[in-house]
Write the structure tokens for this entry.
Amino acid sequence: MRELIIVVPLPPRELFPNYPADHWTGKAKAVASYGYTVKLLALNERHLWETANKQIWEPLVHASIALEFTWPASKRGPLPDEKNLEAAFKSGIDALTARVRGVDKRGDPIVGAGIIADDSPGKLAWLPTVPKRGSEAGVQITIKEIRRSDVQN
């Protein structure tokens, strides 16, 4: 069974559901920018995996995903709850898929990193999301290949 661990920056505050949006374009820019960052970091990890294993990474049809969000220990206040974290990371999940997610300004298709085939129910099993404090801020994404029977609808 294949496994990939990807570390990315925390989502910008504009992507959190409780953040007051000034205008929809601000959130749209944050979604595009964060998704692109996650895609590039995922492609890098995929390339390292392909080099180490001497084979091509095919998108996982059935996978489990665990998200571990780490905030700097110096940051005060309560940590966001798991549902808000998952909602803020939606553009990151989309960036991991192999689906076409739209077109860019030139009309070229926007495709994710191809780590997972799809994020729809029955394809992706969500493990508990973990918020914590630590020395390095970021999100650790752990994706593991699983059997179809292990995915809950």
Observations:
- Strands lie at 3-8, 63-72, 100-103, 109-111, 124-126, 130-134, 138-145.
